[in-house]
Specification:
The protein has 445 residues and is mainly α. Helices cover 75% and strands 0% of the residues. It has one domain: Growth Hormone, Chain: A. The chain contains 21 helices and no strands. The chain is globular and about 60 Å long. Its main location: membrane. This is MFS transporter. It holds the Pfam family MFS_1. It is found in: Cell membrane.
C-alpha cells in the first residue's frame, strides 16, 4: 500500500507544485529558517531572564514561581485548536509577522515597567500567558507554512533542518541565555529578546509562499467550533493521520512520566551533582543534531515506516540505563550516550512523521491537523506529571521510571498495527499539467 492510497479514503488529492530548487537555493526557506532560529535564540534568553527576575529581583515565593510556570504553558493547550483555525483561515505569513511584532512589545514590558519602578509579580503573570498565546499562534502558522514554501520532494530534508535548528537551540540556548543575563542583567535581557522578535518579523516578511498552494487552501466558511470539529474529525478518521497523532500523544505521556524524575534521579540516587547533570543534558541534546543530519538518509534507505518504528523502539531501549545505573562517572557516561541516541532517534522519527502528515493533509486542513496533534500532546503532559507523582508516592520514584519506560513501547505498537507500517517510501508528487508559475512562487526550475 502506498502513502497516497492509504490516505485517499479521507484526504482530497493535492496537486503538488512543480519540482522546486534545492533548499540551499530556496530564498523563502532560508528566510523561514532564519525566522525560526532567531526566535528560538531570543526565547532562550527570556526563558532564563523571567524566572531570575521573579526570584532574585522580586522575591517571588515558590507558589508564585509555580503559577508563573503554569501561566506560560496553559495557552499551548487552551489555544491550540483555535490557533489551527486561524492558521487555515488567515495568511500564515501575516500571522507570523504579526505575532513577532506583538511578542516584541510584550517582552519589552518587563524592562519598561522596571524603569518606571512599577515592576511586580502580577506584571509577570500578565506577560507570561500573553507571550505563550502569541507563541501558540506563531507556531500554528509557521509549521503549516512549510508546504507552501518547500516543494514536496524537499519536505523531509526541510523538516530535518528545522529540527536541527531546534536541537541546536536546545543545546546552546540555556547557556547563551545564562551568559546574556550574567552580562547585562535579568531586567535588561528582555530587550535582546524584543530585538530578536523584530529581526524574526523582518525575516518572515521575506518569505514568498506559493500562490498555487494558497489557492488550494480555500477554507469553507463556518464558526470556529465547526472548523475545529472538522480538523479534529479529519485527523481521527484518516487511516494514516490518526495513528501518527495518537502515537505522538502516547509517547508524550510516557515521556512526561519519565522526565518528571530524570534530574531528580541523577542528583539523588546517582549523585551526579550539577556538573554531571549538565553533562548528561548537554550530550543528550547534541544527539538531536545527529538525528537531523541522518533522518533523510535513513528514510531514503529504509523507508518512513521502519525509521519511525525503529525510532520509538530505540527511545524505549535507551531509557533502560537510567533504570539500572549505579553512582559513578562510567554510568553517567552511559546514560549520556544513551540519551544522545534517544534524542537522535526521536528527531529522525519526528521529522519523518511531520513530513508525512504535511504531504498527505489537504492544504485547507494543514494548520488544524497540526494543532490537533499539539493539543493532544500538551493535554497529556499534565496528566503524565500527575501520574508520575502518584506512582512515586504510592510505590517509588524508580517504579515511576519503570512504568514510563515500559509505556514507550505503546506508540510503536500503535504504528505496527496501523497502515503506517506498510508505507514503503515517502509520498512522491504526482505529475501536474504544465502551467505558468505565479510571480511570487519559489518553486521554479
Amino acid at each position: 500500500m502506498t502513502a497516497g492510497s492509504a490516505s485517499s479514503e479521507t484526504a482530497t488529492p493535492i496537486t503538488p507544485p512543480e519540482p522546486g530548487v534545492a533548499l540551499r537555493g530556496n530564498r523563502s526557506f532560508r528566510a523561514y529558517w532564519a525566522d525560526e532560529a532567531v526566535t528560538l535564540a531570543g526565547t532562550s534568553v527570556h526563558g532564563i531572564a523571567l524566572p531570575v527576575v521573579a526570584v532574585l529581583e522580586l522575591d517571588a515565593s515558590p507558589s508564585q514561581v509555580s503559577l508563573l510556570a503554569a501561566a506560560e504553558t496553559v495557552p499551548a493547550f487552551v489555544l491550540a485548536l483555535p490557533a489551527g483555525v486561524a492558521g487555515d483561515r488567515c495568511p500564515k505569513k501575516r500571522i507570523m509577522i504579526g505575532t513577532d511584532l506583538a511578542a516584541a512589545a510584550v517582552v519589552a514590558v518587563v524592562p519598561v515597567c522596571w524603569a518606571a519602578e512599577v515592576q511586580s509579580v502580577p506584571v509577570l503573570y500578565a506577560v507570561a500567558p500573553l507571550l505563550g498565546a502569541l507563541t501558540v499562534l506563531h507556531q500554528a502558522a509557521s509549521i503549516a507554512i512549510v508546504p507552501e514554501i518547500v516543494d514536496r520532494s524537499h519536505m523531509h530534508p526541510a523538516n530535518a533542518r528545522i529540527a536541527g535548528a531546534f536541537s541546536l537551540a536546545d543545546m546552546t540556548g540555556t547557556y547563551g541565555g545564562t551568559l546574556v543575563v550574567g552580562l547585562v542583567g535579568a531586567v535588561r535581557a528582555p530587550w535582546g529578546n524584543a530585538a530578536s522578535y523584530l529581526i524574526s518579523a523582518w525575516c518572515a516578511s521575506r518569505i514568498r509562499p506559493s500562490s498555487r498552494v494558497r489557492q488550494q487552501a480555500a477554507v469553507r466558511p463556518g464558526g470556529v467550533v465547526v472548523a475545529i470539529r472538522e480538523g479534529v474529525g479529519y485527523v481521527m478518521r484518516d487511516p494514516i493521520q490518526r495513528p501518527l497523532v495518537l502515537s505522538l500523544a502516547g509517547h508524550a505521556y510516557a515521556d512526561g512520566i519519565v522526565t518528571t524524575y530524570v534530574a531528580y534521579t541523577l542528583l539523588t540516587r546517582l549523585d551526579s551533582g550539577s556538573t554531571g547533570l549538565g553533562l548528561v543534558m548537554g550530550v543528550t541534546a547534541a544527539g538531536g543534531l545527529a538525528g537531523a543530519v541522518l533522518a533523510t538518509r535513513l528514510v531514503d534507505r529504509y523507508g518512513p515506516a521502519r525509521v519511525m518504528l525503529a525510532g520509538f523502539l530505540a527511545y524505549a531501549l535507551c531509557g533502560v540505563p537510567l533504570l539500572v545505573a549505579r553512582p559513578g562517572p562510567v554510568w553517567l557516561g552511559v546514560i549520556a550516550l544513551a540519551g544522545a541516541v534517544r534524542t537522535a532517534a526521536a528527531v529522525a522519527a519526528g521529522t519523518t512523521q511531520r513530513s508525512l502528515r504535511q504531504q498527505l493533509c489537504p492544504p485547507e486542513l494543514r494548520s488544524r491537523a497540526q494543532q490537533t496533534s499539539v493539543w493532544l500532546v500538551t493535554g497529556v503532559r499534565p496528566a503524565a506529571a500527575l501520574s508520575a507523582g502518584g506512582i512515586a508516592a504510592g510505590v517509588s520514584v524508580h517504579a515511576a521510571l519503570l512504568v514510563g519506560t515500559a509505556l514507550y513501547l505503546v506508540p510503536a505498537g500503535l504504528l505496527w498495527s496501523s497502515p503506517v507500517r506498510r508505507l514503503p517510501a515517502m509520498p512522491t508528487p504526482a505529475p501536474t499539467p504544465a502551467h505558468a508559475p505565479a510571480k511570487d512562487d519559489v518553486h521554479v526550475r
